[in-house]
């Protein structure tokens, strides 16, 4: 599976940032049946309270994607000879954040904070601007949370700014993520089934 190639890349970034104390939740399953690539769990540098950072990991390279305008803009991804349309990685994490802010008990009661970023470890940062042109201009305000190949140093600083490196036991952060309940409406189920059943989420 793709995560077997992707997760070591993320783990290296975390360790190189001096944050080996963090916990990693891989393939985090949502009640809707979908899953989040990875979540980093620890304590915030500012408040020392539980913090989860959603990481959307893409193996895309510049050579294997094409941004096409067909009345709306899609990213067409080639994978093992087969192609599929993908939504923008920032759109994916925005939807995950929105869902957790609205439905996860620990986020609702303030005992867990959640934010997100994207890691495109095979995508040359030289071409990153192409991911924010045309219809994707609307995601430009979050471009500092997207990290491409060659931006690992900036990714280190981003994580070090968010997470404390003091606490070695992340059990509370793990507990508030996994042991609390979701509050789900029928509408939530329909929206998230649509998002998480798309090819880019498989």
Can you offer a commentary on this structure?
The protein is an alpha/beta fold. The protein is 31% helix and 29% strand. The protein contains six helices and eight strands, in the order αββββββααββααα. The protein has helices at 3-16, 89-103, 105-108, 152-162, 171-178, 186-196; strands spanning 23-29, 35-43, 50-58, 65-69, 73-79, 82-86, 113-124, 146-149. The strands form two sheets. A five-stranded mixed β-sheet has the order 1-2-3-7-8, with helices on both faces. Strand 2 (35-43) and strand 3 (50-58) form a beta hairpin. The radius of gyration is 17 Å and the shape is globular. The relative contact order is 0.22. The model has no long low-confidence stretch (mean pLDDT 86).
Q: Estimate the strand proportion.
A: 25-35%
Q: Number of DSSP strands?
A: 8
Number of helices: 6
User: How many angstroms does the end-to-end distance come to?
Assistant: 10 Å
Order of helices and strands: HEEEEEEHHEEHHH
Strands of the biggest beta sheet: in what spatial order? Answer: 1-2-3-7-8
Q: Roughly what is the average pLDDT, rounded to an integer?
A: 86
In the predicted model, the low-confidence regions spanning at least 5 consecutive residues are: none
Class per helix and strand makeup: alpha/beta
